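$ fold --in a.seq
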Amino acid sequence: MSSSARRTDRRSIPSGPIGALVVNVIFLVAWILERPASGFSRSYIGEIFGVQAIVFFSWSMVMVTIVPGLESMYGGLNKQVQWHRYAATAGIVCFIVHGILIEESTTSSELGKSLGSLAAIGLVLLIAWAFVTPASKAASWKGLLGWLARQPYDKWRFVHRFIGVFLIAAMVHGLMEGPSLSSSTTLQVMYLIVCAIGVAAYLYREFVMLRIRPRNEYEVVNVRHPDERTLVVSLAPLGRAVTHAPGQFSYVHFGRDDWNPHPFTIASAPGADQLEFAIRVSGDETHRLYANLAPGTPAIVSPAHGRFNYVKGGNRQVWIAAGIGITPFMSWLRSLDGEFTKEVDFNVSAKNAVENTFAQELRDLAAAHPTLTVHTHYADDGEFLTPQRIGEQVGSDRRDVAVYMCGPPPMMTAFETGLRALGFARRNIEWENFHGR
């Protein structure tokens, strides 16, 4: 692919966000056309923000479903989840503005007001909780936010599933307390359509999605513990095998009923006899897997997701793997053939040599592919990887260098900022910011 073609591909806007923008513009135009004779009063503007909040929340519900074609509309499941967060954040901002602007009507009912208060408390709390994680600064705080931040993913995920209940309460509140919805058939019909989409997406995700998705059944055939924080699992298919591209991930549900499906990146090459996952212990669920997973355990693997692919990049590339972020690169490398000609500096950052799980295999792969150079950086030895080191490897001509990264989101964000400051083009820096919270 030529440099100019690559630029066009990376700057293109996915169709999903464009479609959502069109829907929001249509709603805004409808509110302008249906405005009352008194014009844009404070309460009318407050109503607009309230309904817009429902539009954003319904959109966010759609973004956490898996239906054919939706992932492609957003450029990957990780991007789809990011847009879910953006929509939910926009929704809560609109909801707060709605609460500030709206003026209590003499026709307000106690039930309508109670539903609005319930929705406000629930939505604000659950969405705020999504921004405070065990890895955030909030985890060191005292009080409610600090306690919430310290809760593991599994508990957050269980409680977060009830967000749809609060959304339904907000929808009913809007119908009961929105005078403009009552007086305008156009606005009411549009509002009910959006509500129906949001509720349908929520019910589909909670009660249908996992039951109708393809079930690819596997069995654990090998479990390795290369260090005290890493688990490498090999699975053999019991029937139809998962088809995947190098660098993709799947949701995996291991045997026990109390173990939940989690997204893990596939380390094996497409077409390999066994499916391999490298898992880093980071929470209650992965601790249980590390301690208890054994050969013979059944597993269900979802279809593969993701668009992390070096092939679309130019001939000069830099790969950056931090910790367990090495996994998609192993799938890339294991799928290489003798025609691999891209010039790659592969930087592997780990705590120490023990936690560089695939160190020997990386050396063998580098020996087999002359255009691949592997650089290791071990924190315990004081060999910290920095954007400046990447700049030194590449030299002065950095604008057309493709950079692919995988690792902890805070590190990846810092590296993206640092690399851009050194002259690397934003359009050529790619990393999958995929985390559940």
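$ fold --in b.seq
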Amino acid sequence: MKTDIMKTMAVVLAGLSLAACSDVDIPQAATTPKVEDLAMTQDGRNVTLTWTLPQADGLLGVRVDKNGALQAELDAPASSYLARHIEKNMDVFFTVKARYADGRLSEGSTVKARYDADFAPAAMLLPQADESALDDDELAALEWFRANYSDGRVLTPADMAAGDITPDKYGEIWIQVDRVGIAMGWQNLPSELVQPDVIAALTEYVKNGGNLLLTKHATQLVAAIGRVSENRAPNLFGSGEGGVGTDIWTLNPVIGSGQSEPYDHKNHAIFAGLELLPTSVTGYPDGYGMEGPGMREDHNCMWDLNVTALEISNTPNVVKGFETAANCSVLATWAHVADYCCAGIVDFNPDGDYLGRIVAIGLNSYEWNQNDRVNDYQGNIEKMTANCLEYLKQ
């Protein structure tokens, strides 16, 4: 009898529940209208997108993604977007989504672009036209470039100023300045190199997608062309004669190697093929050998990230603060540094109007001609340089 009563009550309750549900109006999910009529026109490596905005309450504008990565957020009534200098030899997908005030994004509309072409060769820009006046390290780098890049071109500042050096002709340009006695500041680089028309041409080159490899004192050009503000130019500088040492100078690719949160860049493309030297050999954290015992010049041109003039956050540390402020990655530091203080190799990402990438190597151990002997690790200098030029290839 008890069981029958319980069954009857269950049936009654279920009926009441259904009756109650039938009296409730269930709201329909809010619709999220998307952009319509997405279209694309292409002029070489430049792509123009156009679309029609939906007529919908709360519309803020659109989000534009390229291959899944955010490119721009545009406010209504914007109905077009210019994507400059798309990648070569790959499918590039652009997706446009409507943005709404409550945080919603619509379904995306997508188009595909592609630009197929041979990769442009590398070039080396000399700091001055007279090769006989080059420093020994600059000359050694030039001789290696000529021997290994038969399709490359050696440029002078006058070539750059002539206005015909574009990313489609030269995908990357290497500038090496390494001089005893030079004063700090990009304005003190060789005068031919820092003429206004040359700096303007370099600026335009990078803005249009050209890539730079800046080594030693030339790292200061990141400020000259406006890629970083003047207060974030290299601030750890040397141009002395140097001296004789018996240790091995290495670079440390693990930033904060002695901290609880290290940033390991050993797998970055510019270090491919370089052999790590263990701490037992060098006395420093595991690193890549750059210069062996002998006469070494004291020519740093890099970043001390603890300098307050940089105006960067120290949360969670100054490396992340600099990377965020300058849109870059700090790839290496001095051999013995196990904290976050110093940036010796920096990879500057394309940023804003600057569509090109810049790799800056400012470590004193990056010396092309060890004056009193053949550098035991000359092969690593050359391999890393070749890796950088390959990494920057466009």
